[in-house]
Specification:
The chain is an alpha+beta fold and 214 residues long. The protein has 3 domains: 15-53; 61-159, no CATH class; 166-213, no CATH class. The chain contains 9 helices and 8 strands. The chain has helices at 48-53, 61-70, 80-93, 112-116, 118-125, 154-159, 176-183, 187-195, 201-206, and strands at residues 15-16, 19-28, 31-37, 43-47, 134-137, 149-152, 166-169, 172-175. A hairpin with a 2-residue loop joins strand 1 and strand 2 (19-28).
């Protein structure tokens, strides 16, 4: 495939939007990406059209600075809860965030109430109930909101991932990892039976493991 007819060649060092152009990086489906220097001095890669339109104005430091300034009065800046709130917004709102494609990129949003302020988020969720608690959405295709979120441990989050395989066995639905824990079965052997060998849940969970290599 050839280059687009209206391709513009930019000069290194020119200012595009609010960033300095440092050279072409790559293209994805006609979308051109380039390396830029942010006003803070950090270099980052972004889609040229987004920088030019003003959609992307920095390496991400503007977003973080805005959140800190906006919430400097509540006394919780820098706490685990505040960091969780910032991370949630970055994943959903900032296309230059490394994790955006799995959240904002697939339509996951932060509810208006939590977008508005950290205080609202903290009022709804409260402090983390234990040190390693993480923000988890009960419906992985749903948005971040009081109705769809909870503090959970990593094990609960792993059982709630989109990539998990749900097995219906004896009238009960659970993930493979949950069935393995309940029945004391090796996870990797069971997941291989389900995904690679295409066994039914009954056969996968009931066939003695020693027969797998027979």
């Amino acid at each position: 495939m050839g280059n687009p007819v209206n391709k513009i060649n930019y000069v290194v060092g020119v200012k595009i939007g609010e960033c300095i152009y440092l050279g072409e990086s790559h293209s994805v489906n006609w979308h051109r990406f380039a390396k830029f220097r942010c006003h803070c001095g950090k270099e980052f890669v972004s889609q040229i059209s987004k920088v030019k339109s003003g959609h992307t104005k920095s390496c991400g430091c503007n977003v973080v600075a805005h959140l800190i300034n906006m919430n400097q009065t509540h006394g919780l800046t820098g706490t685990p809860e505040f960091d969780t709130w910032v991370g949630m917004r970055q994943r959903c709102n900032n296309p230059d965030n490394d994790r955006y494609k799995d959240w904002g990129g697939r339509g996951i949003k932060v509810c208006d109430r939590w977008q508005e302020s950290f205080e609202n988020f903290y009022e709804d969720m409260g402090p983390k109930p234990f040190p390693n608690a993480e923000l988890d959405r009960e419906d992985n295709d749903g948005h971040y909101s009081k109705q769809n979120c909870r503090w959970s441990n990593r094990k609960e989050q792993c059982n709630n991932r989109r990539s998990n395989v749900i097995l219906l066995y004896k009238g009960e639905s659970m993930t493979v990892s949950q069935w393995c824990e309940k029945l004391n079965l090796p996870y990797f052997a069971i997941i291989q039976r389900i995904k690679k060998l295409k066994w039914s849940p009954d056969k996968a969970l009931e066939t003695p493991i020693r027969k797998l290599n027979a």
